[in-house]
Amino acid sequence: MKLQENMMTFTVFAAVVYGLWFYLAPASYFSLMMMPADLVNAVAINQLQNTGIGLFVLAYLFNALRKGTSDSNRSEMMQHHAVGWGTWGVLMLAMMTASGQLNAGNLFMWQAIVFLIIAAAFYLVKGGNSVTSQA
After folding, report:
1. What pTM was estimated for this model as a whole?
2. pLDDT per position as a tens digit, 76-126
3. Residues 97, 100, 102, 108: what is their CA dihedral angle, to the nearest 10 degrees?
4. Dihedral of CA 96/120/65/63: which sign?
């Protein structure tokens, strides 16, 4: 149960950290992800800042959900977190595939894979009738 609570807190923490980063220093994120400088323009920066704002909203919502989690709905809440991380990862991979950018040199691909691993971890410890719900 404590592991599940910590994992839900991780989602909130990650949303706040990435939200701040995307909003306050979007160019540094593009630089870290090795985006070609000619592709980083005002529109791309504004879109990433909008994503940062969206992450703040998600942090607020997931924090409210986390606070409203009880033993009776913990498994369902863990599943919501898994779906959130998984959706982000799958859609990132789909966008890269559609644009022909799905390759090992693309750091966005590795980020998407990490998101899918996080989603799997949430799903695996979601509980329900398993041992994790009895802890």
Report:
1. 0.84
2. 999 999 999 999 999 999 999 999 999 999 999 999 999 999 999 999 999
3. -90
4. negative
Taking the C-alpha atoms of residue 66 and residue 5, their distance in angstroms, rounded to an integer, is 7
Q: How far apart are CA 1 and CA 5, in angstroms?
A: 6
CA 28 to chain centre: 19
Average pLDDT over residues 15-31: 97
Backbone φ, ψ for residue 69 (5° rounding): -85, 135
CA angle 2, 11, 1 (to 5 degrees): 15
Instruction: Give the distance between the most distant pair of CA atoms in the chain.
Output: 54
